[in-house]
Amino acid sequence: MPTFSEILNKPSVFLDRNVLSPHYIPETLPFREKEIERIMNGLSPALRNERPRNMFIYGKTGTGKTCSVKHVIGKLVEHKDKGTVASCYINCRMYNSRYRVVQKITKEILPALDSMGFGFAMLYEKMMGEIRGGGKRLIVVLDEVDMVKDLDDLLYTLTRANDELERGSICVIGISNRLSFKEQLDPRSRSSLCENEMVFPPYTATQLQAIISQRAKMGFKPHVVEDSAVNLAAAICASETGDARYALKLLVKSGEIADEHSLKRITDKEVEDARRSVDTDVAFEAISTLPDHQQLVLLSIAELALDKGKNTRLTTGTPEEDDSFLISGEVYEEYCKTARKFRKPRRSARWYREYLNDLEMLGLITTVESGQGMRGRTRLIRIGYPATDVKKIVEKNFLIIESSDHRGA
């Protein structure tokens, strides 16, 4: 059995793995200059001791939303005047309720306070007292804001807090991968959060190639990554998701494969090998964090894709002739059955269409509009990952949810 010393002394293609992390924020963020400038303009009133407007930022995963916001917040805090500007970044996958968000904010601005055991009202008063007393311009970043269970209550609390503050203020920046989630908000919450909206477009193949090349030079030893491997990783990402985080995962996994086999170069072969492993990890992460009904729609698509005995596959021509596509109406019928099976109230056809948009935006499915050859126009759907793997992930998630529900009963 090897010792840690032996493992640490093994040759490696990596120079600095940290710069290949999606959480690493480089000094310059290529191809996001316009978006960064807009965020800076939106938050600059805090430096004049004025309340910035709330901001909602959305776009696909891996388009630089979080990095851009963190980059601007870092610059803002550097220029703060006498400590009046404060910020709190919150990952809403971890802090997914109003109570937990306010608890996190209070802990950030009052680090000496042991907030455990405080009720919500007490935490709120402590937070407000600190903001009011110091005249703080607090900027709260809610990343993956759609994961908060009682989001309307949270937004109401944070935005209405400004009515009670004689000094200081709270500004909210919401970040989401899902374009449709805001439609589920109360109109008042929507108007307060979306005072200033921004959309981050996906990176193009050329942009991804430049980003991957930049990080590869920083993260690997000189001349380790072949140019063709960089180009292949960029092409894979651009054709599938436009997700820079996916590209970085490909780089890291390619490097791990090279180290495992004592290779000194990363070629196309390592990238292709890494792709199979990364696809599984990305699919599991993306599916496991979906709300229940999106998972049920995805499970229905997987079931139909696997069930060759049903007449749901098209067997005649072009996208609509491709037998890997499914008809939207039949998927909706299957979703209704699946919802009953898991004792969930089915959602309307309108919400079902929004769920399809979310799933497509995350790269879990592909959709196209049918041609004139079918009765009317309909949406054709194809699953983006192996149906067997998707089915296992969703069913496992629902088993965990049901087990948790029974324990809480």
What does this structure look like?
This protein is of the alpha/beta class and 409 residues long. The chain has three domains: 33-200, 3-Layer(aba) Sandwich (Rossmann fold), CATH 3.40.50; 203-288, Orthogonal Bundle (Helicase, Ruva Protein, domain 3), CATH 1.10.8; 292-408, Orthogonal Bundle (Arc Repressor Mutant, subunit A). Helices cover 52% and strands 11% of the residues. The protein has helices at 4-9, 33-43, 65-78, 98-109, 120-134, 151-164, 187-193, 205-219, 227-240, 244-260, 268-288, 292-306, 318-321, 328-341, 349-361, 387-408; strands at residues 55-59, 85-91, 137-143, 169-176, 196-200, 326-327, 365-369, 379-383. The protein has a five-stranded parallel β-sheet, with helices on both faces. A three-stranded antiparallel β-sheet has the order 6-8-7. Helix 6 links the parallel strand 3 (137-143) and strand 4. It is globular. The two termini are 47 Å apart. Residues 309-320 and 403-409 have low confidence and may be disordered.
